[in-house]
Amino acid sequence: MYIHLEILKQRLDSINQLRLIRAYSSMSDQLKIIYELLPILLNYHHPILPGYIEGDVPVGICFFVPDTDQINWLKQFDINFYFEPILYKNNSELPIIGIYSMGSTSSIGQNNNSDLDIWICHQSWLNKNEKKLLQKKCTLIKKWISSFGVDVTLFLIDENLFHDNISNSIISDSEHKTRTIQYILLLDEFYRTSVRIAGKRLLWMIIPVEEEKNYDEYVLLLYAQGILLQNEWLNLGGLGKLSLNEYLRASIYQLYNSTNFSYKTILKSILLESYFMNSHYGELLSIEFKKRLHAGQMIYYGLDAYCLMLERVTCYLININDFALLDIIRCCFYLKVNEKLSDKNNKFINNNWRKHVLSQLVISWKWNIKKLRILDNKNNYIIDQYQYEYKKYLQRNAY
After folding, report:
1. DSSP-assigned states of every residue in 238-284
2. What are phi and psi of 167, to 5 degrees?
3. Domain residues for 76?
4. Residue 239: inside a domain
C-alpha cells in the first residue's frame, strides 16, 4: 500500500510538472513572470511588494520554497530577510494550503487570449477578519496584475467549502463578487484541470475510484492507520452523484451563457449532457482522469484536460448518431486551439506539442486542406452558422 502511494505521488508530480511546462510554453513573457510571482506575493508581505496592506494579514504557503528566479526577483527589493522560514502565530500549519490554476491553463486549449482562474486554498481556521484581510490583499494583487493587461481571477477557497456536499455553495473572487456554484461540477473541473503552482498535493487524486462512495471514511482510515499524514494534503472532499437539480441549474447557466458564444462553451454543454443522459458515458470526466492516472496511462496526450473532454463528447455524439453536431464541436475545438495548420509559412515545429496533437486529430477526422483554410480564415459565415446551430441545440435541450 505504501509503495503504491509513493508511485502515485511520483505520477502526480510528473503530470503537474508537465502541465507547468506546457502552461509556460503557451504564455507571453509577461504572463510567465506573473504566473511565477503569484506564490511570492502570497507567501510574503512587505510594504514594497504588490498587495501590501496594513494589518495582521495571513500569509505563508505550506511547503513553499522560492526557486532561484523568485529569489532573484525578491533581491531586487532588498528584502532578503524574508527568506527565513515563516511562522504563523502558534499554528504548525501556514494559512495558505496551496495555489492552483484551473481551466484551460496548461491544456491544448490554452492560447494567448486565455485568462487565468486561480484558486487560493486556505485553512478553515482563519477567522473572519483574517479572511477579509486576505481578500483585500488578493484584490490589490489582481489590480497590479491587471495593470499589465493580464486577465486573472483570484478565488479564495476554504478547505471545507465542499465537504458538506452543499449543492449551492457561494464562492467569492478577489473583487468581492459572489456566485452560486454547483459543487460537483466545479470540483469535477478542478480535479481534472488543476495545476499546482505552490503548496500541497490534492488528496482526491490518490484515493481509489472504487472508494469514491465511501470517500470520507476511507480517508479517515488512512489517517488512523498512519498510511497518510493529514497535514501533507489538500482535501477538498470526494465527488458525489450528479443530481437532476444540479444538472438543470448548470444547463440553464449554459443557455444563458450562450449569448456570449465561445468555442469552449459548446464542448462544456455537450459534456454536461453526456454526464446525465447516457449511463455508459455518464461517468464524471475527472473519474476517468483518475482511472488513467492510477493505471499509469500518462502518455495519452499527457492526460490533457481538453483532449479528454473532446474524446468524451465524441464518444457520446457517435453513440447518439449526431454527426452534424460532432462536426461542429470538432471545428470549435480546432478554432479554440488556434494553430493554423493550412498556413504554409507556419511550419511544423517539433517542440510545438499543441500543433502535433492537433495535426494527429485532423488526420483522424479526415479533414482536407479546403476545410482547414476556411477555418483558419475564420470565415464569418461559417462561424455564424456554428453559433446558430449551437443555440438551436441549447434551446432544443431546454425543453
Report:
1. ---PPPHHHHHHHHHHHHHHTTS--HHHHHHHHHHHHHHH-TTT-S-
2. -70, -25
3. 2-234
4. no
